[in-house]
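Supplementary notes (optional reading)

For those who missed the lab, this is the record we used. Protein: Iron ABC transporter permease. Length: 347 residues.
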Amino acid sequence: MTARSLSALRRARVIERSNRVRLLALVAVLAGVAVISALSVAIGTREVGLSDILAAFAGRIENTDQAAVAARLPRTVLGLLAGAALGLAGAVMQGVTRNPLADPGILGVNMGASLAVVIGVAWFGIATAQAYIWTAILGAGVAAVFVYAIGSMGRGGATPLKLALAGAASSVAFAALVIAIVLPRNDIAGGIRLWQIGGIGGATFARTAEVVPVLIAGFVLCLLSARRLNALALGDDLAAGLGESVAFARAFAALGAVLLCGATTAICGPIGFLGLVVPHLCRLLVGVDHRWLLPFAALTGAGLLLGADVIGRIIARPAELDVGIVTAFVGAPFFIWVLRHQRVREL
């Protein structure tokens, strides 16, 4: 056997072993999401038994426990969808910008969507779910373009550090504008403040159904961008040399991320840090290949957001902590760790 054939055999064995590990990780993540989903249905301000859970699934609502389970079902579904959307959007944003600090919250995309919704409510009186969704998507898109344009100014173009600084500054500015708009409007202030915390409480299947088509479009665009993101990870010059249109690849993937961020913010409010944490955890499991990373980011994001929601129900009984507060407590220390250990290098 020649040296070349031995080398090819070793590479094949390494790939086979790597795929085996990834499949095991996939099974583990799916099992974890299933367990967390079951806990989300069973745990709340009051715990319920298996008989009441099965009765609620069958559509029989005969007591308070069964009614509680019926209310948790749409909340669980929304948590899974929102977590998958934010986790996937974070992985795509990190791939598009080659920035380990990229996140819908840190880059100002979520707050841009929030500002657009607040302007729509306060100045234009929007009230329907569809109006909220498309207004939030418009705001998320404008914010993403604005932050990227600011981060691209000066020598070196859009470096990770400049993008992070531009996003952080834009987020602060957008938040200040939200406060300035809401303060004189007592008629909308209470609802807007609750929505801005970020949460999935009060979800219904009817409200969630309004956002599902947009989320599906975002999921499809992001997952189809996996090969393009792998090319971009090699650098713009090499990606172009391989025949990839760099501008189109970035725009295609970014559009999917904007749809996911805007739609999720419209229905849940701005939920931060999930898009930062999830891609880093998934790279530890499956590496940097976006064909594996993106699906894992969606699944892991779904599990983490729903898990954070369950924790929020437990630690503040008989009240609840909104999931946006729980993710902030977890995400802020993780952000500091990334800053210290990644040193803001490009991906």
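If you only remember one thing from this example: The two ends are 38 Å apart (CA to CA).
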